[in-house]
Write a structure and sequence with these properties.
The complex is a heterodimer of chains A (about 290) and B (about 250).
Chain A lengths: L14 H25 L4 H8 L2 H40 L7 H16 L2 H14 L9 H27 L2 H9 L4 H31 L11 H12 L3 H30 L16
Chain B lengths: L2 H4 L1 E12 L2 E12 L3 E5 L6 H8 L7 E6 L2 E2 L7 H7 E4 L11 H11 L5 H14 L15 H13 L5 E5 L7 H16 L3 E5 L3 H7 L2 E6 L2 E6 L1 H6 L4 H12 L4
Parallel strand pairs in B: 3-8, 3-9, 6-7, 7-8
Antiparallel strand pairs in B: 1-2, 1-4, 4-5, 9-10
The chains are: A mainly alpha (about 290), B alpha/beta (about 250).
């Protein structure tokens, strides 16, 4: 670490308190101004009635919160499957040698396709198309296909995260493991992956936040979860307040998770651990 | 088989290796007998490290053959992992596994590649660590150790596989001057114990002390080889003389 750069504003002790005051005052002015503009807009009473009805909010809250359990279920089951499938994909893609060429191609095509097509389309295609095949032994329930869809969709993203992690481990680590007589698989299992996964935990959490939000998309294929529940309430009353309730639920869950991810990242940076995308400190010598 | 041949630990015939268009090794012939210590000297880029990496099969070779204890290891279809277990290599940058304790670094390969039980592997590792003054560091992680300690752990990690042949690739080049001695002492002890070693080094004084034979590499060939006395006091080749003169001028001999 280099010497700390002196503060540009000088070093008087009262400066800290002074900047807090400035921040506070500035925030008050900006937010006050925004609030005034919105509240004084011509359509505000209408918006207030249809989006921010306190009574309807309380009523919707009692329905959307239990329905959110379905989203939690979807997110947790899918995430568990994603973590496994994505790792398999990432490992397949990083296998060297001509013998593994078809596996690399398959994994690459899979990742490309599922990342390129908008998630909603994949949800439609799998949610309506796959059950219509009436494959023997597979259930027709929307919940099952919702899990399948979310898993396939997010595995494509998460496998790229894993792959970045695997590639961030310097080749000299694999060389050291192989030179001791460990097999390719053993080197991956005991040396490369433990280091790779540790480094990608924050981006994995980011994708988990995304997955958790995208659970509302499977409402389109008939899973009655939080968004669908709010939709039903909205359709019955022509009032949009239930959607606001849904948004609040997600805010309450997602913001702490995002803060936790930031904290993990900051801790990694503080400890000087290699972040994905930066090179490691140990270099292989030729 | 003659007795002479059985004592041959390593033989390299006509080894060629290129990285793209860059021909790094251009016809290396080298024989190392058991318990012999051979030092490779030469300027950076002369091919010393690449030669060691080829012997360990980290780099595939383009032509030639490498025979270890009578087995051609560069033949098609050999079990690369089995060969590597018999040949230890220690790198300039240590390459310890940063997510594992010293003990785990040392026992990983014996356990996973040789199938030793954990108690056995740990007992043997502890004996080795004690022998090299690292017993109190068993549970430390690599980033808690000095460079010299890390390099000693790397040597112990290679020794834990009980290799027939140990390759040392400029193992002191990444170390602060005051840490070099402790690593060289370890290597001296190994030489005294009869370990067959091929050592790429910039430490000429050390090479003169420890080597049975010194090979001067220049532009991918072994230009000259001989006993340390011959090589350092009376080199035959002009290039060798120039190289040694530069080393002396730099104060490293």
């Amino acid at each position: 670490m280099g010497p700390r750069r002196p503060e540009l504003s000088g070093g008087r002790p009262s400066d800290g308190r002074r900047s807090s005051w400035i921040a506070f005052a500035s925030t008050l002015v900006v937010f006050g101004l925004l609030g005034t503009i919105i509240v004084n807009s011509p359509g505000w009473p209408e918006i207030q009635r249809s989006f921010l009805d306190a009574e309807r909010f309380g009523d919707a809250w009692g329905d959307v919160v239990p329905a959110f359990l379905k989203n939690v279920q979807l997110a947790l089951i899918a995430e568990g499957l994603v973590l496994v499938l994505a790792l398999v994909l990432a490992v397949l893609r990083s296998l060297p040698g001509p013998a593994f060429f078809p596996f690399r191609v398959l994994a690459t095509i899979y990742v490309d396709v599922f990342r390129a097509v908008p998630g909603v389309l994949i949800i439609f295609a799998l949610g309506f198309g796959a059950p219509a095949l009436r494959l023997p032994g597979l259930p027709n329930e929307p919940f099952f296909w919702a899990i399948v869809t979310l898993t396939l969709l997010y595995s494509a993203y998460v496998s790229e995260v894993y792959r970045a992690g695997i590639e961030s481990v310097h080749p000299s680590q694999d060389a050291a493991a192989r030179s001791l007589g460990l097999s390719r698989w053993q080197s991956l299992r005991y040396v490369v992956l433990p280091q790779a996964i540790r480094r990608v935990i924050p981006p994995l959490l980011n994708d988990f936040i995304g997955l958790q939000k995208d659970t509302v998309l499977v409402s389109f294929i008939g899973v009655v979860e939080i968004f669908r529940t709010a939709q039903i309430k909205q359709a019955a009353s022509f009032n949009f307040t239930p959607y606001v309730a849904v948004a609040v639920v997600f805010l309450l869950v997602t913001i702490p998770l995002a803060r936790f991810t930031d904290w993990l990242l900051a801790r990694q940076a503080r400890r000087g651990e290699a972040l994905v995308g930066t090179s490691t400190s140990i270099s292989g010598a030729r | 088989m003659t007795n002479e041949r059985q004592r041959e630990a390593l033989r390299i015939d006509g080894l060629y290796k290129a990285f793209g268009r860059n021909e790094v090794l251009r016809g290396i012939d080298l024989t190392v007998t058991e318990h012999e210590v051979v030092c490779l000297i030469g300027s950076s880029g002369s091919g010393k490290s690449t030669l060691l990496r080829c012997i360990n099969l980290i780099e595939p070779i383009d032509a030639g053959r490498i025979v270890v204890e009578g087995d051609e290891i560069t033949a098609r279809g050999v079990d690369v992992d089995r060969i590597r277990r018999r040949i230890g290599i220690v790198f300039q940058a240590f390459n310890l596994f940063p997510h594992m304790s010293v003990l785990a670094n040392v026992t990983l390969a014996p356990r996973k590649a040789l199938g030793r039980s954990r108690p056995d592997a740990e007992r043997e590792a502890t004996v080795l660590l004690e022998r090299f003054g690292l017993a109190d560091k068993r549970l430390a992680f690599p980033d808690q150790l000095s460079g010299g300690q890390q390099q000693r752990v790397a040597i112990v990690r290679a020794l834990a596989m009980q290799p027939d042949l140990l390759l040392l690739d400029e193992v002191t080049s990444a170390l602060d001057p005051e840490l070099i001695a402790e690593v060289l002492d370890v290597i001296r002890e190994l030489a005294a114990g009869g370990m067959t070693m091929v050592i790429a080094t910039h430490e000429m004084g050390f090479a003169r002390d420890i080597a049975n034979r010194v090979c001067f590499l220049d532009a991918g060939r072994i230009l000259e080889e001989g006993t340390p006395a011959e090589m350092f006091s009376n080199p035959r080749q002009e290039r060798t003389r120039q190289f040694l003169q530069r080393v002396i001028d730099a104060g490293r001999l």
